[in-house]
Amino acid sequence: MKAIVEIKGGFGNQIFQYSFANHLKTQGYSVTVNINKSNAQRFPLSSNYFGFQESSKFEVGLYKFFYYVSQKNMFNNSINKLIKKVFTKVYNLESFSSKKKRYFNHFDGYWQNVDFIKNHEDYLIESLMNVKVIKDNMKHKIQPGKTLVHVRRDDYVGVGEELNIKFYEEAIRCCKKRIKDFSFEVFTDDIAWVSEQDIFNQATAIHGPKDNIDDLFIDITKMFNFENFIVGNSTFSLIPALLTKSKSPLVIVADPWMKNSKQDLNFEKSWIKIKNY
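and the corresponding C-alpha cells:
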C-alpha cells in the first residue's frame, strides 16, 4: 500500500502529520510526504528531520488525477470502479477508521489525536534532535514550578475561537493553589493584547511571534523545558506539553478545545479542563 501524507499548517499541525505518517509506516504503508509550502504558515519542517522522502511531482499529479476522476466519473463505469477500488482520499480520523485501505491512499488532514504523539514520542524527539538549533539548545533542566502559558489570538480573533481572559485567570489561580514556587512565562502571537491584561503582569517573561525559523526553534526548545503548561487551544503549545521532560506536569486545557467544533483530541485523564468561556 502506498500513501501520501500532506504536511501543512503551523509547527504543531506538522508534528501531528509527521507522527501520523510514522504511524502509517508502522502499519505497512509505503509513505512519502507532500509539503504544502503555501499552507505551512511560513515555516515548513523538512522531511529529512523525520526520515521521510518528499513525494515526487509525478506521484502528486497521479493522486490528483485519481481524485479528479473519482469525483467526476469521467470514464466508463468499469474504469471509474477500478479507480475507486485502488484509490482513496481521507481527510479526518473518522473517515480513516471507516474507509477500507486502498493501494493508493492520499491523507489530507490534521490527525489531531493525542495518542499519535504519545505512541510515537521517541520517534518525534529523535526527529526534532536532527534540527541543530533544537539539539544545541535542549540542554536546560526542568525548573520546578515554572509554567508555560500560551495565548493564541491572531487568526482566532474574528472567528470566535480565541480564549477568554477568564480562562487564563482561572487557570493561573488553579496553578497557584497546586504548584509550589509557581512562576510563569507567556508565549503569544499578540503581545499588545497580553500586555493589556492585568493577570499577565505577573509573568516573568513574554515571548512574541518570530520572524525566522531558527528563532522559532529556540522558542520551541524553551517550551520543552517548562514543568507545567497552560495550553492555549493550539497544537503549538500542546506538543511541548505532550513531549515535556517533566515527570509529572500539571497541564491545563480548555473545555471544549474549540467552541465551534466537537473535536475530541483524547487528552490525558490527568489533565485539568477549564471552561472555554
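(Above: one complete record from the training split.) DSSP finds twelve helices and ten strands in the chain.
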